[in-house]
Every structure is written in C-alpha cells, then in structure tokens.
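Figure-free illustration: sequence to structure, shown twice.
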Amino acid sequence: MKIQKEEFKGNFFKECPCSPEAVSCGYYNINLHTGCPYSCSYCILQTYLETKDPVFFTNYEKAVSELNEAQKHLKYLRVSTGELSDSLAYDRETNFSDQIFSVMKKFPDIVFEFKTKSANVDNLLKRAPKKNIVVSWSLNPEQIIKREEPGTASLKERLIAMERVQDHGYKISIHFDPLILAEGWKGLYRELIEKIGGIVKSESIAWWSLGALRFPESLKHHIFKHKNSRLFYGELIKGYDNKYRYFKPLRRELFRFVR
C-alpha cells in the first residue's frame, strides 16, 4: 500500500450532504484524507472516488482556518473525517490521529468524532482522552459484516476495541447505519444489542444513531459487483430523493424494533 501526501485545493470543511428537503442532521465533515481499504457493498465512495488508494492532505493550516471561520457562525459543531475515508483505518501506518489531537486542542468547544469499522485504537490509547473527542463504530450483526463489509474488523474485534477505548476514558458512539433487513434480522439485531450491552457503560455513550439502508441509482451496478451481497433480497423502492429504500412500513418496523 502506497500512501500519498499532497496539498488539498478545495474546502476541507463541509456540511453533511443530506437529501433535499430533509431535516439536516447538523453534522459536518472535515476531509483531511480520502481513500478506504475496505469494500463495503453499500459504500457510496464507490461512485465518486476514482481510486481507493489513500491520500492524506498536508495543508492542515487551511483546515484550522476554516474551523475558525465556521465557529464564528455555528454555535454547536460536530465534525468527523469519516466521509471520504474510515477515520482510523490507516492509523497504524500513519499515526494520523496525532494530527487530529493537535488540531482539536485549538477547538475545545468543537466535538470531533473518529468514525471507524476498524480495531485500530492503539495510538488513541497512548494519549490522554479529550472531552471533545469521541470514538465511534459502525456496527452490524456478524453475519451481515461478513457478507456486506469485507475487509473490515470483525464484530468481536470492534467490540474489544470499543471496550479498550471506553476503559481508557473516551466517550464512544455507536452507529447502526445502515440497518439491513436479512433473514432472522430481529434475532440478529437483538443478539448484537445484547453483546453491546454486556460491554458498554451507558455513561460512556455520547450518541447512538440509526439509519436504514439507502443508496442512489448510481450505486446499483457497484453493488452487483459484490457477489456475496444480498442487499437486493429485500424489496426496495425509489423515494422522492431518487434513493432506494425499504418500504416505509418495513422501515418503521425496523426502527421501532431496534430502538
């Protein structure tokens, strides 16, 4: 694996691209690197990144300047590097998390989230936790991880990493996104939640999000390249924003059960 370093010409700081007319999630991205080693079947990066090779940007001072400007106009800010890459996938090779700590030290009122499907937390455990730094995991039942998230850490590995980070004093967050309907899904998600409940202390949780499977038309042919994927086994319809989703009654049942 070759990690490239270059200067970024665009804007680092961007609002999360929610669907038109949808209530904003209030989330912001600060894209300090791109490229991801994982091969999740549903990943939107397949449609607009030319290569999976990692690129880390060197002009952090521009990112700091943009955060300074944003803080003048936005009272509450939650940012992450998890839009164009996994926040910790390359941290063993790059120790990039050190750069994040250096930047966020200047912004104690901005909450930063490391969002990952890895178990790469060793570098985080070498540092004292910060109140404004949260470490989060996207989680699914192991059966779905194996089928739809190849290359990522196993559920067991993620939960061990989560427990280590929590015990070190970090706040953690959990993302059930995307929730995926599969045979026996209620039993699968009940078992997953029970496993999390055996590890996580409620006072350690910063937030826990739910989001059902959805994807644009442009992702369909990429999903078909994943021979083991079963994302199309459930019936999907195109919504007002031209994204495919489960029927609303199924989505409601999914959210209500998991909640």
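We now fold a second protein in the same way, so the two outputs can be compared directly.
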Amino acid sequence: MKLAIVGATGAVGEVMLQILGEKKFKFDELILFSSERSAGRKIHYNGREFIVRKLEDNCFDKVDIALFSAGGDISRKYCPLAAKAGALVIDNSSAFRMSEDIPLVVPEVNPEMITKCGIIANPNCTTIILVTVLNRIFKEIGIEKIIVSSYQSASGAGAKGVNELLDQERDFVNNNSLKVNNFKHQLLHNVIPQIGNFTENGFTEEEMKMVNETKKITGDYDLKISATCVRVPVLTSHSESVFFTLKKDVSKEKLIELLSNSPGVVYSENENDYPMPLFTSGKDICYAGRLRKDNVFENGWSLWITGDQLRKGAALNAIQIAEYARV
C-alpha cells in the first residue's frame, strides 16, 4: 500500500505522521510532498529517514491513499490529478467541501459516505468538533436551531500563528514592542472577533463554513444555525459555546446519556474536570460539559465543548477516513 502526504512539513502534516505512528497504520511505501521551499528536507518517521519531495503533476503514480493538507489552491490543482491516477484522496482544505458530488465526512457521523476512490473532503475543524459532539442528539432527538460561538486557538492559523503568540509573550515579558504579522491584531491579552474574510452577509468565511458544512454532514438543510468565530490567545484546541433547541422535550438525563455514549466524545460535569484547551490538547477525543436547560427558549439547551483541532479537527479525522476506506 502506497501512502502519500501532501503538505507533510506543515502543522497538520506533522500531526498526521505522529498519528500514523501511534495507530501503527500499515503501508508499504510512504511518500512525503511539500512546496519547492521545503523540498529536500529530511523527516524521521518510525526509525526511518524520508526526503521530502517537491509536488509535481505526475507524482501520484500507483499511490493508493493521498492525504492533502496544503491549502485550497494546491488541493484544487493536485487532488483531481491524484484521484485520476487512482488514489483515494482525503483533502483537508475547503476546496471541495461544498461540491455536491464530493462527500464531506466525519466518520463518527456519516461513515456511509466514505468511498474507496475519488476525493473525500475533511470538514473544517470547528465543524468536526461540533457535529461529533451533537451527533446522537441530531439522530435520536432532532435539533431545530444552533447558535455557536467558537474560541479558536492560535494553532488554527498554523505554526506561524503559534510562533507569533509565543513571540508576543516573550516580547511582553522583556518589555519589547509586540510584532503583529499573521493576525489582524495583537493576540496576546486579546481576543479577535474575526477569523477569515468577511462575506457579503457580514459573517466571516469561517462562520459560514460551520453553517454550510454542518447542514451538509447532517443532511438537514432546514437546520437554522448561526456562528460567531473568535481567535483567542490559546496555543492548541478550539472551544465552542453551543446553544441549541430540540424538536421535542427531553430530560437532561437523556441528553447526558446520549453525550456520554457518543463515539469520540467524553462528557463531564465535574467542575474540577471541565473541558478546557489546557487538558484537551494532544487528545483525540472531543470533550463536553456544562449542559444546562435554557431559561428563555422552549426546549433550549446550552453546552460547552472543546477538542484538539490539529488532531480530531484535522489530521485524525482524515486518517480515520482512510482506515474506514481500507476495511
């Protein structure tokens, strides 16, 4: 089995390699691709040294699975080439997520959409965390409306986002001026209520991803959903404050039962064990807590969730798709 990773030197690509090793994912040949700038770099994996190759048009010959995490422009050009060469392509960019003929998959939610070949799109990190946690409530109770605010870590912007936050911390301690290059504003000691460019309706691209992708994954295009996405000075793991209304009245005990028995989810109400980025970074599970019945809206509930967006929100989800496809 010939496995390729496109974008192997990026933040998600590095986590993909880490998870492949943890899972002992079996393959016969591993090929790592990157931009021309990173080509030639040496990466050590599982006791072996791999030379990163430059991505080219004809480099997918006999590749069985190609994991892409290199940005939308690269995906739009090279994913179809890899699929045409016969590979199952799992793409982490937004390039194909809303294409009607391309599955958008979270294995815990809609594994029936996984194919053996062609392109499969990996959803946005915040969407993956949201639908993983609410999966059984969607299917067994039904959800009418969702209002979600995300609190997204610096690593959602890649290694450059993490480095900028760390640099700002060091400069602040040393009484140096803080540099702002990758975010629109200083992130240290601040929150930024914008992720992505604004669209015509006043929402950002990141917010509309959550809206449109959630509808596609659940298959519920009548779902009413609104999102606000905020960048926060946290290194890794995204959090979300979720308000939702149900299609019928149920008890808190029933919802906790569904959350506690949802694949890929841990629910806790212990105030000493709240789902927080500090504890969820590096974990594969999505965590939920603070479920409470709303005192304004009928059948309304509020919930707090968090998960490592580099793992379940990106790399792990892609590798899980590859595992399902191989069965």
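Summary for the second example: The CA atoms of residues 293 and 301 lie 4 Å apart.
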